[in-house]
Specification:
- The chain contains 13 helices and five strands.
- With 300 residues, it is an alpha+beta fold.
Length: 300
């Protein structure tokens, strides 16, 4: 990922979202040549020279101070996630591109936690949204059409982003697929800003851009969002409609690679809770006994 180019693209897309009247500047009417604020208008609001801001947007300045970045964030009216993303892009570090590391496995303590939460759907993800582990209910909820042990083998390990955009089952599982897609891309872009040197992450983004026009269009918006809690709508093939709350809990792991525990729950007493219990019952129900017709031996 070309971080200077990403910084310029991010600044341009945020600048295009603001109109002069939104920030107290005169618009003077008439047709403007560019959408949103002009470079000189944003530079004025941020208290920097137009020449300096232009260099920053063109990726020619990599030493912006905290004060300048904070001023730009205020001028662009960035939220907390966007502000953090701006700093990540402006301060990518000096790490060079390394070969894709060996896929990490789930941390033993995290696995134990997921398995202990038997009545709660749990999916363990890394920063690339690779599924490192899921408990039985997490598998049944989000990936029942895949092998239960798929996350244990790096060659077949599912990826939540790839599933959402390239797996047709996801279109049926999420009735509000467009909303899920917007949130997923915004969260992935935030991770990309935090891990600019991760070649495997860049390859995932490249694959999705080539194979999914929807992903490409959303990626070009440069929206960032930390999706750590909220609700998701499901239409499960076995139990029907559910609205579940989710919490994303970050757990540190070996070698500095964080792992996130994604846990779902239903409102007590709701139809969604009943549906989730019904899904749970499909995991524990005994297999139906099949009676085979056998020809009894003739008694002489």
């Amino acid at each position: 990922m070309d971080t200077p180019a990403e910084l310029g693209n991010f600044l341009r897309t945020r600048r295009a979202l603001l109109r002069p009247e939104d920030v107290g500047l005169p618009s003077y009417g008439g047709q403007r040549r560019v959408p949103g604020l002009r470079r000189e208008e944003l530079a004025l609001l941020a208290g920097v020279s137009t020449a300096y801001y232009t260099r920053l947007e063109q990726g020619q300045s990599v030493n912006a101070s905290d004060g300048v970045l904070d001023a730009l964030a205020r001028a662009l009216r960035l939220d907390a996630d966007e502000h953090a993303h701006l700093r990540n892009l402006a301060r990518p570090g000096r790490a060079t591109r390394r070969p894709a590391p060996r896929p990490a496995g789930v941390r033993p303590g995290v696995r134990q936690l997921a398995e202990a939460m038997g009545e709660v759907p749990v999916v363990v993800l890394d920063h690339r949204y690779d599924v490192l582990h899921w408990n039985a209910l997490g598998h049944a909820l989000t990936g029942g059409h895949l092998a239960a042990d798929a996350p244990e083998r790096p060659a077949t390990r599912p990826n939540a982003q790839r599933m959402l955009f390239l797996d047709p089952h996801a279109r049926e599982l999420y009735p509000r697929w467009e909303l899920e897609a917007r949130r997923a891309v915004a969260a992935l872009r935030l991770e990309a800003g935090e891990h600019p040197e991760d070649r495997a992450l860049a390859e995932l983004i490249g694959e999705l851009c080539m194979k999914s026009p929807e992903f490409t269009a959303l990626w070009a918006r440069h929206k960032v969002l930390s999706c750590t809690s909220g609700t998701k709508d499901f239409h499960h093939p076995l139990v029907g409609a559910m609205t579940l709350s989710y919490e994303m809990l970050r757990a540190p792991a070996a070698e500095g690679a964080a792992q996130s525990v994604l846990a779902y729950s239903a409102e007590p007493g709701s139809p969604s809770e009943a549906a989730l219990r019904l899904l749970t019952s499909t995991l524990t129900a005994p297999a139906p006994r099949v009676e085979h017709d056998r020809q009894r031996p003739t008694v002489r």
